[in-house]
Amino acid sequence: MAYKKYLNKNFAIFCGPGNNGGDGLAIARLLSLSGHAVQVFLLNSASKRSSDFDINYKCLKEVASVIIDLKEISLPSLAADTIIIDAIFGTGLNRSLDGFSKQLVEYINRLNNKVVAIDMPSGLLTDLSSKGLTAIKANNTLTFQCFKAAFLLPENEEYFGNVHILDINLHPSYLNSVETTFELVDQQFISSIIKLRKAFSHKGNFGHALIIAGSYGKMGAAVLSTKACLQSGAGLVTAHVPAKGVEIMQISAPEAMCRIDTQSEIISNIDYDLKPYTSIGIGPGIGKEKMTTSFLYQLLKDYQKPMVIDADALNILSENPDWLSLLPPGSILTPHPKEYARLFGNDMNDLEKINTALQKAHDLKIIIILKGHHTFIATPDGKGYFNTTGNAGMAKGGSGDVLTGIITGILAQGYKPNEAAILGVYMHGAAGDNAAAKYGMISMTATDLIEALKTPDLLTK
Ligand SMILES: NC(=O)C1=CN([C@@H]2O[C@H](COP(=O)(O)OP(=O)(O)OC[C@H]3O[C@@H](n4cnc5c(N)ncnc54)[C@H](O)[C@@H]3O)[C@@H](O)[C@H]2O)[C@@H](O)CC1
Ligand SMILES: [K+]
Q1: 139 Cα–ligand 2 center, Å
Q2: Does one domain contain both 146 and 247?
């Protein structure tokens, strides 16, 4: 955070009765001691205070500071440049706000003052959906030790502003001992998955990916996923395309081999042995023609190894939900929000979507990648992973085709499906961040993502 712009300002610190309020009182003391003008407003101070609150209250009393007990009728008026610190409620909030605390939060939200939330914007529930609830809309949130699930849900975007994680020195053995459903995928996590390429390796060591994609008018999707697959480290890549798409593919991606469908404009069947291929990615641009639909059904029935399933292949599945049970274990589904809704239902808040994805991943023994700002990866063992790379410039046609290519290429190299999904999503986002830095979020395209994969430190910075 640009701390400097907060220096030499006046502060209004709103404190609740629990430990979050105690943190606010400690901040008030430190700011007062460093010469800042601080007003402290206590909410429900007569109710049961936590011991941290009491300790910090005592310490603050010894420092010259204005402490005001808020009454229902007396909401304070504040100068426009006063910084508001929200220490009303943190992780201890166990129900939605009501009564005076709700009024106070609504009042703070109506002001135009800058707001810094401590640990959580007050009113936001840590592990439950806060859709439709009243909560502080902060410009910055200073949160302790780790990301809270609430910061990763799109429906909470307007509340937390920029999130800064403060290390409060919780003991590493404690942190490691805590069992969580969710993990954050960052560079450190990725370095524990990635395998080094040995000096004496040859193309046969890195597998052979088969991308089944394209139809007349949608060959771009096939080209994007094939090119991305070529740049994900796979040893060999073959694209199975409709006959009319062969020249397009061969000119656009000369490193890839082609398998040519018997149909000129659509994909209809595979009349060769699939054993040599170490992974299959299917879906980008294939359309939903009857012959393509029957072909997908046959493939699902016959093929036993994990596949990456995207785009129209997902749409076909959503029209034939019984076929979900045919998915080979370890298969990776990559729906965007609309495809997800078609597959597993609408009318869910973000947490319900996540929980449904975890349940379906478990029941069907598959991996579900819910694409979005913090793309979520649900795995069959019940764990979910939030990605940390990527940006809004990637919300464009073709980005998903690139992701399918990357994951299929990683899977081909012998990574386990969970690892391929996590690594692929991270790599895709990291390429997106590079593309945004070079071209800007507005103008960057899916082709720029592929270009940006060619960065030596993509997975190490
Ligand atoms: N390891 C930790 O857990 C640490 C926690 N700390 C702080 O402690 C906070 C959690 O403290 P607490 O557990 O005391 O909880 P909070 O301070 O978030 O709130 C608890 C208080 O609010 C009341 N309350 C809950 N929901 C309410 C509602 N809807 N309306 C009105 N009152 C409501 C509770 O009865 C209780 O009195 C964290 O957010 C963080 O700020 C930090 O001090 C550092 C370490
Ligand atoms: K807070």
Answers
A1: 12
A2: no
The confidence score (pLDDT) of residue 236 equals 97
pTM to 2 decimal places = 0.88
Could you identify the residue written with the tokens 């239902």?
345
Q: Residue 65 Cα, ligand 1 centroid: separation in angstroms?
A: 23
Q: Give residues whose Cβ lies within 5 Å of ion ligand 2.
A: 86, 90, 117-118, 122
Per-residue pLDDT at 321? 97
- Is the separation of the CB atoms in 146 and 168 below 8 Å? no
Residues 301, 399 share a domain:
yes
Residues 203-254 have pLDDT tens digits of 778 999 999 999 999 999 999 999 999 999 999 999 999 999 999 999 999 9
Statement to judge: residues 279 and 345 lie in one domain: yes
Beta strands in 98-139 (DSSP E): 115-118
Q: In percent, how much of the chain has pLDDT > 90?
A: 83
- Give 192's pLDDT tier (boundaries 50, 70, 90): very high
Q: How far apart are CA 374 and CA 183, in angstroms?
A: 12
Domains held by the chain: number = 2
What residues are in contact with ligand 1 under a 6 Å CB criterion?
16-21, 23, 48, 50, 52, 89-95, 97, 101, 118-120, 144, 168
Q: How far is the CA of 354 from the centre of ligand 1 (A)?
A: 25
- Identify whether residues 444 and 344 lie together within a single domain: yes
CA-based nearest residue to 393, from 424, 339, 429: 429
| Cβ atoms 263, 242 nearer than 8 A | yes
In this structure, are 144 and 220 located in the same domain?
no
For the CA of 52, the nearest atom of ligand 1: 43
Print the domain residue range for 256.
Answer: 188-453
Q: Tell me how far the alpha carbon of residue 178 lies from the centroid of ligand 1, in angstroms.
A: 19
| DSSP assignment letter at 198 | P
| Among 158, 177, 196, residue at a domain's last position | 177
d(CA 368, CA 371): 9
Which residue among 177, 209, 241 closes a domain? 177
pLDDT surpassing 60 at residue 148? yes
